[in-house]
Each structure stands twice: as structure tokens, then as C-alpha cells.
Amino acid sequence: MKLARKKLRLTIRAGAFLLLAGLLCWFALPFVISLPPGLAENPAASPVFLDRHGRIISHLTLVDSTRSSPVSLDEIPQDLIDCTLAAEDKRFFSHGGIDILATFRAGWDFLRKRRVTSGASTITQQLVKISSPRGQRKLTTKVREALLARRLEMTWDKRRILIAYLNRLDYGNLRIGPTEATRFYFQKPLADLSLAEAALLAGLPQAPSRLDPISHPKRATARRNIVLQRLAGLRPANAHLVRDALTESLTLRPLREKTSAPWLSSIGIHPGNEIRTTLDLKLQQTLETIVREETAKLKDANLRHAAVVVIHNPTGEILALVSSADWNDRHGGQINGSLAPRSPGSTLKPFTYLLAMERNGRLPCSILADIPTPLKTPQGISLPENYDRTYRGPVTLRTALACSLNLPALRELNLLGGPAPLAELLQQLGITTLGNDPSVYGLGLTLGNAPVRLLELTNAYATLARQGRLLPVTLFPDRRPSLAESRLPFSEKYFFLLTHILSDKEARAPSFPPGGPLDFPFPCAVKTGTSSDFRDNWCIGFTPEFTVGVWAGNFEQQPMKGISGIAGAGPIFHRSMTELYRTDTPTWYPLPAGLTEITIDSRTGKRVRDEEFPAHPYARKDLTDKEHLPLMATTADYDASGKALIPFLYSEWYHSPHNHRLGELLLDPAPAALEPLRITSPANNSTFLLDPEIPSGSNQLRPAANLPEVIEWSSETLKIQKEGRETIILLRPGTHLLTALDKRSGNTQSIRIHVKSL
To answer: Is residue 427 assigned to a domain?
Structure first.
């Protein structure tokens, strides 16, 4: 009897010990192990870019290339919750993290069949598994997951566990969570899922690749039906709904991502945020279509790429930015054309004339010389031409800019002292690609021989549109820089005059006939540009509200087949600007104080009586500064037949085949006030070193002056020879005097140079 009692006590003690050990394992041991770091925070959401109105532009991927959009449990349809429980853990709301019945069943099946035939992991255990770093699957791993599942069950409520699980589930095709899965497979919101669709999604996490409904629809449908059959056992009252779902055909609408503004993905951002941009999605999509259609029209002319920037002038916000015609083009389609430095052609000329107005007192009616002009470049002396390879003689500044003539712009920049003032102005306007030494571009800077970015140049034009107010471009409204108000140091009236010229259809008509892409039913200032080798063409313009910049060309630098800015970028510009005013009403600038309208003779730039307009064939209306009115024309400006007299400066042009104006112009036989002679190169007291190891030609000096047409060079100690229009001085050691003679007046200017041998 005593022995029996002793055995009973031992049995009770052993049972108590086992019970205590079990309780410790069930309630205490789970707290010895740390929760996976992946459970510490909510799952990251894929970055989503929004437009200015809150519309989704694009869903980006996380660092592992997946897409995820976590939601709350209340946002998930009950059908999807029930189907998930039926598929994965039907006793989820009754167990404590480990389903004892399922575990014993799985163990018994393993013992009977000597292989794993069914799983016993609960949703809580699976949550631990998918939140933990990947590792080798072994018994200790399963034990760890079971203990952590117990810890979660004791510290989290069931709803929190369930939504954490659902938001981390892999539904295949790199879609994490039910929101992204529904968007990808059905292109609909979660709330619109049918019971059959919910069952399909609930079955996928078991084997996302093997059950992929796109690649393996039969497997996916079979798995869906298993889920529905399990659901019928849990929802006997809704058996008829399950029967209907079982007969529903599998209808997928796989999402094919055609993202607007795909370049946004290259911008460094933090995941998990909804990032609001200043873009207008509808405008962005329309402009992408325009670029695609217009470049397709010119494919045979070897134009494949184009980029567009639209800026809202009052704020500097980017409303649309098209980086390329085809993001998937293997020939550089993923290059952002708005940021790629390219040759801007004549689009820099307006800034040269802005400087000429401010510093040289030029007005739209000022007469400029469009004549052959040798100019010094870093490579030597060149004889630049206009786009049409002809010269027009005396023209107004309005005509020179509106018709985009090269020679007047080059001569104006020369009078401003060379490329430095223009480079300084462009840098003030935000152009960052010019470098620190503008002399490498020479006077050709005004013709666009320096690289610029479309985005920066478009904003420079937006500064013209704002009449000198400087603003940085903005893409993210919550990251807008807070800057003090700043303006360019130019009079408002010069911005207005420049804008007036760029919007003058009549003035540009000789080079850009009416009815083309530069004409609008509302005022619009616009300028085109074409690189000399047809590798780039541009069209940039503005209204008070918007500035639109367009570049067209090929990213791999292949030239187009004779496509100019008017033909390549122009149609894209026209359609883009027209789209902006589809619903808005355009405005225009009021006439600034200090400007007045006058009547001029377009041949001389001088004022004539208002009553002579429009009867006088050369009378034109123009705007001018009240404080600097041009002179009145007198009889001394004309011959007896009414031809305008022009100075000797035009002599060579006048007698050349380029002169088609013999019926309106005549060389003035009388001497006139002459522009003073000025030697521009070399500088006085310059020193030159002769190196005998440098090939022949290093001893040649090509001098330059501001009046190359009427200059004659001489030196008593150096030999001077002519090669075409160029003057070449052959250097030798010593100190020499060079003299330039103005053949019109007989005036001379001399400089001293020093030549040494190495």
C-alpha cells in the first residue's frame, strides 16, 4: 500500500512537473525569443507618385522589385478573409497560435506515409515565417516559429495578426498583399472582388509560381475550387453562393503597366510614401501621346526622340515633362531628354538682344547689319552664314530676331564685348552647363554652340515670361525652396519689347510663313533653334501663364534629314501649347509705362509721320522707349526717287549677288558719322612664343578688328598676306608695330606685339 501511494505521489509530481513545464513552454518560453525585425513595423508600401490633383501617376517597386499597398482589415472584403481562413487556417479564431489538432493530424499522416502530406502551420506561424529572414528549413526552425506564434498570440489580438499576415502575403507576379494582387490580376479595387475572385486570390499564396493564374489557369482554377469547397463547410447557410462561384469562369485582366512619366522612377525617394508632384496627369498623358504621334510622322527623316517641358510661370511648377518618345526604345529611350545637354541653336539669341537693349540702347527699330562678316573664333577666322545662306543688308532688330538671322546676333554680341556677358546672363538664368570659360565658345555662343539642358533653358524662357522674375523649377510642392524675391537687373520694358518681337507673326513671316506651327489664335512668344548639323532642333515659347519647351533629335547623336526646329519640334510645341488653352482663356501683357507706338521706315529705323502708314510701302508700326525716340527721317535720308540711303558699311554687300533690294536702297555717296575703329585681337603688348617643334602654321597670326570689311593691315617689320577674306601676319622674333587702317576715313590704330623664340 505504501508503495502504491509512493508511486501515486511520484506520478502526481511527474504530472505536475510536466504540466508546469508545459505551461512554461506554452506561456513563458516564447518570450525568451525575440520577434523577427520584420514584425517591428508595418510592411513598407510601394512608393506612389501622385499628380497635383491627387491622381495616381505611377506605382513604383520596393528594393526587392515587389509592389505592396498595405491596408487596414476593415478595407478587406469579408469574402477574401473567409476564403483565406478556409484555405490556410479554419480554426484561426479559436487556437492560441498553434493548432494542436492540425499538428497531431499532420504528425499522424507523416508516421503513416513516411512523408509530409499536409501542413499544420497556422496563420500566426506563417506570419512569423514570412517576417523572418530566409533560412534553412529544419525542425529547430519550426519550433522557433511555433514559440514566436505563441508570443504573438499573447501580445497581439487576432485582428492585428490577421491584417499583418494578409499585408505580407505573396500572391505571385511580385505582388505583395491583396490590394496589389487585386489591382494586378483584375484591375479593380478590393471592395469589388466577387466570391470566386476572392477564392482565387486566397489560394495563390500556397504556391504563387505553380498556381500563377496567368501562366497556369487550370491549376489556379482547381485550387480556387478547393478553397470554395472548404468555404462551403464553414458557411453552410451560403452554400448556394459557393455553388455559383464554382461555376464562374476564370476572367483575368492582367495589368500591363503603361506608366506615365516613367522617368519619375529614377528620382531618389523614400519608400512607403505617397509623393505628390506638381504634374498634371491628364496633361502629361496627352503630351506623351503628342510626342509619340509627331515623332512617328518623322521617322523617315530619322527623328526618333523628343522631350517636352511645361512650366506654370507664376509658380515655377512643372506641369508636364516628357523625357522621350518611347521609354522602351533600345536606342536610349530611357535617357531623360529634358536633362541631356544638347546644342540649343538659335534659342539663345533672345538673350543676346535683351543685353543689347539694356546695354547698347538697342530698340526693335534699331538697324542692324546683316552682311558677310569675318569673325574670330577659337579655331581661327570664320565667315558665318544665315540659315538660308543669304544676307539682307540693313534690317531692324525686330526682323533680325523674328527671322532668326545669324549675322546681326553675332555682331551684337561682338559689340557687347564677346561671349562673357551672354554666358553670365545665362548662368544667372539657371543654365549650368557652360563651364567657367565662355571664351571657348566665342561669339558662336549666341548661335547655340554650347550645350544646354531643355529643362534649364525652358525655365530661362519662363523668366522672360515673368518679365524678369527669377524662380527655380519645382516638381515636389512640399519641397519647394523658400527663396527671397529676385529679379534680373533689366528694365521691365525690355522684357516686354522682346516678348512683343517673339510674338510678332508679321515680323517672322519672311522666314516662317503664316499658318505654320508657330501661329496661334492667341498671342504667343516663340523661338525655334536648329543645330548646324541637324542633330538637334528646338521650339520654346510662352504666354503669361505657361512656358513650353521642346527638343527633338536622336539621343545617339545621329543627324536628322534636313529637319529644322519649325518642322521637328514645332508641331509638338503647337499641339502642346494649344492643349494648355483647351479650357483656359489666354491673357497677354499690358503695355508698360515708358513705351509708345511710333511709325518708322523699316529701311532706316527712323520715324516717319503716322499718316504715311499704311500707304508708305516701308512704313511700319513699332514700339519704342519714350525717352529714347529714334530720329525723324529727313529728305537727306533718301535720294530723289525715294530710295533709302545706306552707309558705306554695306558697300560689299550692296554690290554682291545677295542684294535683292536695289529698288529700295542706295549707297550714300556722302560721308556719314563712322563707327570708330577698334582692334579686338591681339591685345596691345601681347607676347607670342615661337616653338620650332610645332608644325608649320604656328607662326601665323590672324588679327581681328570691329570693322573687318573696311580694314587694311600693315607692318614695317612683318610680312602680311591675304588668303581669301583672311589677313595672315607671318611672325618672327622681335618687337613689331601692327597698324589697322580704316579705308573709309583714313583713321588708323596701332598696337605693339612681342615675338620670342623658344
So the answer is: no
Average pLDDT over residues 319-329: 92
Q: Which of 77, 726, 683 is nearest to 373 (CA)?
A: 726
CA angle (359 as vertex; 353, 362 as ends), nearest 5:
55
- pLDDT for residue 742: 81
Taking only the tens place, the pLDDT of each residue in 483-507 is 667 899 899 999 999 999 999 999 9
Are the C-beta atoms of 738 and 751 separated by less than 8 Å?
yes
Burial of 339 from C-beta contacts in 10 A (0-12 / 13-18 / 19+): middle
Residue in 270, 246, 313, 563 with CA at minimum distance from that of residue 459: 313
Structural domain boundaries, residue 658: 599-641+651-667
The C-alpha cell that represents 743 in the structure block: 579705308
pLDDT at 117 > cutoff 50? no
Burial (CB < 10 A; 0-12, 13-18, 19+), residue 693, is: exposed
Give alpha helix (H) positions in 54-122: 78-88, 100-113
> What residues contact 69, with CB distance under 8 A and at least 6 apart?
45, 46, 48, 59, 177, 179, 180, 183
Task: Identify the three-state secondary structure at position 131.
Answer: helix
Residues 237 and 111 in one domain: yes
Q: Cα–Cα distances in Å, from 178 out to 129, 192, 257, 470, 737?
A: 18, 12, 18, 47, 87
585 lies in the same domain as 625: no
586 shares its domain with 606: no
Total-model pTM? 0.79
pLDDT of residue 575: 96
- How far apart, in whole angstroms, are the C-alpha atoms of residue 508 and residue 410? 19
Are 627 and 684 part of one and the same domain? no
Same-domain check for residues 78 and 89: yes
Q: How far is the C-alpha of 126 from the C-alpha of 139, rounded, in Å?
A: 15
- In this structure, the answer to whether residues 206 and 228 fall within a common structural domain is yes
The Cα–Cα gap between 52 and 303 comes to: 32
